[in-house]
């Protein structure tokens, strides 16, 4: 493999208002092991360990997994690799909340005290570690009181099984409610939000990311390339049948976005990439890295070549202010009521000491 120049290595940032520093690119490990959803292009243990080794060569220290990825297989693969590494060199993040496939156990889902305490013990066993640096709720649970979930997570911090608490896949009001509840109860703070965020999926800017800015949560975008749409490899008007771009619309229709708008965005990214001598994925990832709400972008890879291409977005170059604006404009989400009224009315009322980022209306 080609050696990595020091100036291209990752940079490090604080994770929200915590004192923990993480690399600006996080390695997502959902591709490790057999997929529990049948996703194509998964990596076996040997290739997964090669990808982990190469990520470490780039200087990365931040690994993200979840109990549900391969129903434990991803955590197991990461854990075997961790046994060969100095534990204090890496920040390990995992999640709980989704059903782990035990149909006979009706409590094997959600964020109850029973579910969380069982899940963290099993994750620690698979990861071969005494603690997880960042433990994230994988989804909001309507069936469990917030106090029960948050007190359980706080207890896990106090006994040393987890170090920090994070959220994932939540709405704006849910983020605010969770943050407010921790403050009201005097519990350990929530430090991060892991959310789908890319040039095609920007709706969380309306509220969830405003809360991140107000409350000091670090944002960890997942699916920065929108399941392959932002790789530039697809053709307008041609429905993909292979790979994740072909699989996703059938398995996860709410994540599909093969529209003319999508291809207009890709065309703009291609033009900017050509000017920089960069790949389309690198520009899409770089756009995220230059958003001030973002702490670390979660990138996945099914090959070493994909990893190297993604990691090359980390450092050593940047998009101009004009290019960032161009990408913002072409990808601006449509504002519906009340966002159109709120943002338009406040466009000239932006106080730099109190305001968050402004979302431009496409109406």
From TrEMBL:
Pfam families: Aldo_ket_red. InterPro entries: AKR, AKR_Detox_Biosynth, NAD(P)_OxRdtase_dom_sf, NADP_OxRdtase_dom. Coiled coil: none annotated. One of its GO terms (molecular function) is oxidoreductase activity. Residues 25-330 form the NADP-dependent oxidoreductase domain. It comes from the Eukaryota. The keyword Translocase does not apply. GO terms for cellular component: cytosol. Keywords: Oxidoreductase. Belongs to the aldo/keto reductase family. Aldo/keto reductase 2 subfamily. This is NADP-dependent oxidoreductase domain-containing protein. The lineage of its organism: Eukaryota, Metazoa, Spiralia, Lophotrochozoa, Mollusca.
């Amino acid at each position: 493999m080609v050696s990595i120049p020091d100036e291209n290595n990752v940079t490090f940032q604080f994770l929200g208002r915590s004192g923990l520093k993480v690399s600006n690119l996080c390695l997502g490990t959902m591709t490790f092991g057999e997929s529990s959803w049948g996703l194509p292009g998964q990596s076996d243990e040997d290739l997964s360990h090669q990808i982990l080794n190469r990520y470490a060569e780039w200087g990365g220290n931040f690994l993200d997994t979840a109990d549900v990825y391969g129903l434990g297989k991803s955590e197991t693969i990461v854990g075997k690799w961790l046994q060969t590494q100095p534990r204090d060199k890496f920040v390990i993040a995992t999640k709980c909340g989704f059903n782990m496939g035990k149909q006979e156990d009706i409590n094997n889902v959600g964020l109850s005290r029973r579910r969380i305490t069982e899940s963290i013990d099993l994750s620690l066993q698979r990861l071969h570690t005494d603690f997880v640096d960042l433990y994230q709720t994988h989804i909001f649970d309507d069936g469990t009181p917030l106090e029960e979930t948050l007190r359980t997570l706080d207890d896990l911090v106090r006994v040393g099984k987890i170090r920090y608490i994070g959220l994932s896949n939540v709405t704006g009001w849910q983020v605010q409610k969770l943050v407010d509840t921790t403050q009201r109860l005097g519990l350990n703070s929530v430090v991060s939000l892991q959310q789908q965020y890319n040039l095609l999926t920007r709706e969380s800017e309306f509220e969830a990311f405003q809360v991140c800015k107000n409350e000091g949560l670090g944002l960890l975008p997942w699916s920065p390339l929108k399941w392959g749409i932002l790789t530039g490899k697809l053709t307008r008007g041609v429905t993909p049948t292979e790979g994740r771009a072909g699989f996703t619309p059938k398995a996860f229709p709410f994540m599909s976005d093969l529209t003319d708008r999508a291809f207009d965005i890709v065309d703009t990214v291609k033009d900017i990439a050509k000017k920089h001598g960069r790949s389309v994925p690198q520009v899409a990832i770089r756009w995220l890295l230059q958003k001030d709400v973002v702490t670390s972008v979660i990138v996945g890879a099914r090959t070493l070549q994909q990893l190297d291409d993604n990691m090359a977005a980390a450092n050593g170059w940047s998009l101009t202010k004009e290019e960032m604006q161009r990408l913002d404009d072409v990808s601006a989400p449509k504002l519906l009521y009340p966002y159109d009224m709120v943002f338009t009315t406040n466009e000239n009322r932006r106080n730099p000491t109190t305001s968050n980022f402004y979302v431009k209306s496409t109406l």
